[in-house]
Amino acid sequence: MPKEVTGCSMTTSVGTYSFDPVSKQLKWDIGKIQPLKVPTMRGNCTLAAGTECKDSHPTIHVDFKIMQLAVSGLKVNRLDMFNENYKPFKGVKYITKAGNFQVRT
Questions:
Q1: pLDDT in tens, 3-40
Q2: Distance separating alpha carbons of residues 97 and 21, to the nearest angstrom
Q3: Residue 102 bridge partners (DSSP)
Q4: Residue 2 phi, psi (nearest 5)
Q5: DSSP structure string for 41-96
Q6: Average pLDDT of 59-70?
Q7: Less crowded by CB within 10 Å, the N or C end of the chain?
Q8: How far is 69 from 71, CA to CA, in rounded Å?
């Protein structure tokens, strides 16, 4: 967020949020995604006294990850390992991760 932002007041449909005034980062922890409830967030940001909003349509930088989900639908049914001296763990850990992208309002 811009350096002029001093606080945020948000309302979320699911999960919790936290705002770090030092790093100017807003973190939204959705938790487990419920199939019938769409995660949404609304709110306002507070600017420091005596400052103006430079841009009425700011660019928001977003990155996210979803544990235990493969958006592509790729499934691993079998994995054979040869010449290993240890017994590997049976299971696959899926993760969906987006790099940094911009949302232009």
A1: 788 889 999 999 899 999 898 888 888 888 777 888 89
A2: 25
A3: 61
A4: -60, 155
A5: EEEEEEEPTT---S-SS-EEEEEEEEET--TT----------S-SS---S----EE
A6: 78
A7: C
A8: 6
Within a 13 Å sphere around the CA of 30, how many CA atoms are in the beta-carbon half?
14
Distance CA 70, CA 68 (A): 7
Closest CA to 30 of 56, 52, 10: 10
Question: At CA 25, angle to CA 23 and CA 27, rounded to 5?
Answer: 140
**Encoding tokens for residue 33?**
């995604």
Tell me what pLDDT residue 12 has: 92
Question: For residues 53 and 6, is the Cβ–Cβ distance under 8 A?
Answer: no
What is the pLDDT confidence band of residue 105, given thresholds at 50, 70 and 90?
low
